[in-house]
Amino acid sequence: xxxxxxxxxxxxGGGDLMxxxxxxxxxxxxxxxxxxxxxNQTVLDVVTEIQREQDPTLAYRFACRVGMxxxxxxxxxGRPRWTCRTRVAQVExxxxxTLEPLRNLPVVxxxxxxxxxxxxxxxxxxxxxxxxxxxxxxxxxVAPSAPERREADAGIECINCGVCYSACDxxxxxxxxLGPAAxxxxxxxxxxxxxxxxxxxxAAVSGDAGCHSCHSHMSCTEYCPKGLAPTFSxxxxxxxxxxxIWRGGR
Amino acid sequence: MxxxxxxxxxxxxxxxxxxxxxxxxxxxALAIFLPMHFIALGTALGGADKLESFLAIxxxxxxxxAEWGLVSALALHMALGLRVLAIExxxxxxxxxxxxxxxxxxxxxxxxxxxxxxx
Lengths: 250, 119
Fold this sequence. Notes:
Chain A is α/β, with parallel strands linked by helices. Chain A contains ten helices and eight strands. The radius of gyration of chain A is 21 Å and the shape is elongated. By secondary structure, chain B is mainly α. In chain B, helix 2 packs across helix 4 and helix 4 runs antiparallel to helix 5.
């Protein structure tokens, strides 16, 4: 599939922006579009303009447009990014943008992927707060300077965009691997002093598809749009699960 | 989107992937060398003459080239291993490409030093 669609004249000079967009599902091909350059336009702006002005059948996903919801991630010129906060001028290569759906997730259509496996991994990694059978009746005092609080703070701002999951080579090799986001979430909960489910969580993240499968390629940390460091969270889980073995856990 | 297409584009962007491949390949090379190293040491049990006759083969140029390769592989394996340790225990956060490049440069430097030393 290689049809080129012409559009209006570029208002700011420099010619149109050429955009190669993945069309189809797992099988498919690239379709070329030309869109006008606009001041400060983001990659999401470009996709939206293509869909509204040239091809309404183009499927993609977005919601907030301000970097909060994590729904607009795509692979832009070979690198997974949040498209609402990525300006075209930063990433275009010789006037060309190549847009693909996130890797390591089933493609629903065009640029939209099925996120269900991604969130299933969060559940498998016990990425949810476990208050226990008898939760404390009062607030737990947690000092901002406490080491556990600092560790949790470092990873808590994840917006579930899937960029790290898409960038991870280990997920590509082993589809069962829990992935950086789920393990990062588990690490924030390991450092939650109120949580009562630590033993089960550490057991869940220490299997064949758990934290010890991480090869420290650092792609998740390099590509995370929020500047988080899942690699370090996973390293923390490696240490915590190893200590658990020494304490007699399995 | 073929599998090859996906992996080629991914590898182009990921120096961490290259680092892991180099780390493992150099590790395999060292693992293959280690038994031969012990065999060489074992010849000493039969006396100095046996060891010397065995060591004589190290004067041939293909063996010298292999020695240079092994020294370089050892240096590369150590540098990339230190990188992993620094990431996992010191939370070292720097540009992966620059760090992997520095590891490769260190290995090349050690290899050159080996050649220049005339060992």
